[in-house]
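pinging the channel bc i need a second pair of eyes. not urgent but kinda urgent?? the chain im working w is below, pasted from the shared doc
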Amino acid sequence: NDKTITEPEIPTKEGYTGRWEDYTLAPSNETITVKAIYTANEYTLAFESDTKVDSIKVTYDGKITNLPEVPAKAGHTGVWKIDDTIITNETVWKYLENKTAKAVYTKLSYLVKFEGADVASLDVLYGEKVTKPTDPTKEGYTFDGWYYNDTIWNFDTDVVKENITLTAKFTENEKPSKGCKGSATAGVFTLITLVGLLLKKKR
């Protein structure tokens, strides 16, 4: 005779869907053991960034092995974050629902060097302005400004986008005129001439 039984509920297991394995009832009172089989649930991971990124499927307790690259952004380094947690291809999925990862960016830091004067280098974030140092002095010269390549650097508007070197440029001051010496010589010449005329008159 065919026998049927009422199966008990499958015990729950977080992140998994369970079922009883296939079995056939024994024709007698023989005891059989039926195992619970669990399959990891699948979830959708979506992405939020300035550039469209397709969503992927992830499996509970499995690594996110197919995580896409964070879209590039000039002067920044980026990571994917779910809430406040950074995720990578090594992250094991432990969420019990679909999630959205956001692209989070951090500005890169660049080195600003100063040449031509004793000014310490600065670390400046991408897109930020350089703090203007005190104008350097050089005896016999006038300071013209700080130059990046051949262009004067405007500390009010220019921003850093890479490692740069700012060079101090000076203009030599005009030296005192030599005209005074010429006048003195002319004066001596005139005095000699006058003395000569007076001597002639006495003769």
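so The first helix runs from residue 179 to 202. and Helices lie at 179-202. — does that match what u expected or am i reading it wrong
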